[in-house]
Design brief:
209 residues, alpha/beta, disordered N terminus
Length: 209
């Protein structure tokens, strides 16, 4: 065996697209620090999300709302240092992208330049669709997030499953399709009935996590 190991191939969005169309599972996990990043790197996952849930799991806040952009950049940079192969997704925290397209692009650019993320994640449909489109137009790949969106859990009635009525299910599906039309690279769907996910999946050209 050669003393020099072949360089590890870094995954791309094209690799995810190939997996989706080959009906192969795409593995995405959350990490918040350098040691956990090394563990998931060794496990061979496809994507790593640095979620704003770090606010609660690492930083001791009682929700995701208080965490700042600088705090999220700190944990994201730590995860980046532990990864070689998986795609890295940085969660834009509450208040860092909603106000305007310009603010959203500026925040996302920090995550790309300072933390080395491959994609950024933003929550909800509605006005967030415009933010997603602006980010994509600025050359920044985006992950959309529908269903239970923790940044707005209070307005959703707390950390509860979403899409449990016909109207609510249609809202989740419509939000996901609008984000797809805006050019996002994949969709995360959280805490919805399995029937909603089953109805949405065939409508998407992009991966659904």
């Amino acid at each position: 065996m050669s003393a020099h190991a072949a360089p590890t191939k870094r995954l791309t969005l094209r690799d995810l697209d190939v997996k989706k169309h080959a009906r192969e599972p795409i593995v995405m996990v959350t990490a918040y620090d350098f040691p956990s990043a090394q563990i998931v790197e060794d496990a061979g996952v496809d994507m790593v999300l640095v979620g704003d849930s770090a606010a609660m799991t690492v930083l001791g806040y009682d929700s995701t709302v208080p965490v700042t952009t600088d705090e999220m950049l700190m944990v994201t940079k730590a995860v980046r240092r532990g990864l070689t192969t998986p795609l890295l997704v940085g969660d834009l925290p509450f208040g860092s992208y909603e106000a305007s397209d310009e603010i959203a692009v500026a925040t996302a650019q920090r995550f790309v330049k300072e933390a080395g993320v491959d994609l950024v994640k933003i929550e909800r449909g509605g006005a967030t669709v415009d933010r997603a489109r602006a980010l994509v137009n600025a050359g920044i790949p985006v992950v959309g997030h529908v269903g239970l969106t923790p940044q707005t859990a209070t307005s959703l009635g707390g950390y509860r499953a979403q899409g449990r009525t016909a109207d609510a299910a249609l809202t989740v599906i419509d939000d996901a399709l609008a984000l797809q039309d805006a050019g996002v690279s994949l969709i995360v769907i959280e805490a919805v009935p399995s029937e909603v996910t089953a109805a949405l999946a065939p409508l998407l050209r992009i991966p659904l996590i």
